[in-house]
Amino acid sequence: MALPVRPRTIVAGLAAGSIGAGLLVSRMSRGVDADANAPKPVFGRGPAFVSLPLESSEQVNHDTKRLRFSLPNSTDVSGLTLTSAVLTMSWPQGRWFPVARPYTPISEINENGALELLVKKYPDGKQSTHLHSMKPGDKLLFAAAIRGHQWVPNSVPNVTLIAGGAGITPIFQLAQGILQNPEDKTSVTIVYGVNTNDDCHLTKEMQRFENEFKDRFKIVYTVSQPDEKTTLRKGRVTKELLEEVVPLPKDGETKVFVCGPPAMESSLVGSRKEKGILEQLGYRKDQIHTF
User: Which residues carry a binding-site annotation for FAD?
Assistant: First the structure.
């Protein structure tokens, strides 16, 4: 799903200033490709500007699709680091200028040959509408990687990941990367707040994590407008909920990552003038990270 508002400055700069240079670099790099079958990263620190064909499109609920793109070669890997996004660009019908939006992949960062996105369609979302209209075989331009917080394995014994709605994608990417790394022993707790039961995404993957990493992984769902027969918690992500279900700073060194709607992030992270819920619970500012 698309990242929150903060990266748009980065997006605008990349889109406006790097197109020509990126296309040139991309073409030159393809000309010196010595071994097309050797595993190689598609995204690095510079522009990528690679068009990837849509391999499959799956409708997962009323407004969200799971889109799987093929990398140039079946042995290629994304080359992304944890908490990285990819900048996508398109020219929707009738527009002179490109639309650029960042999305966080949900596929494993070392998966060969493919890249998966989970994309929520917004009523006025030009890029999300375009992506939802794509058919297998259509191509999408991926301009560059956008690096986020660089996760250091075993830097803390446990980490709390809080997601709201569409903010689950970077949260899931980080959890998946930690758990799939045999060298990383960090315990992971996810708190996932959604509007309705139908908005709970990646539940099969979360269940697999619970089965495989019983002593290291826990997920807590909370639904603000639940179904009548729901077995999930009811309500929003509150101070009381966090006090009950997550490891708090008083129990030792930890970190917390947050990604969700602006109102949710504001209540959790706070502002310069007012402490948010996380600081009230004892987290230091350097322990709190947003995407």
Answer: 101-103, 118, 120, 126, 128, 169
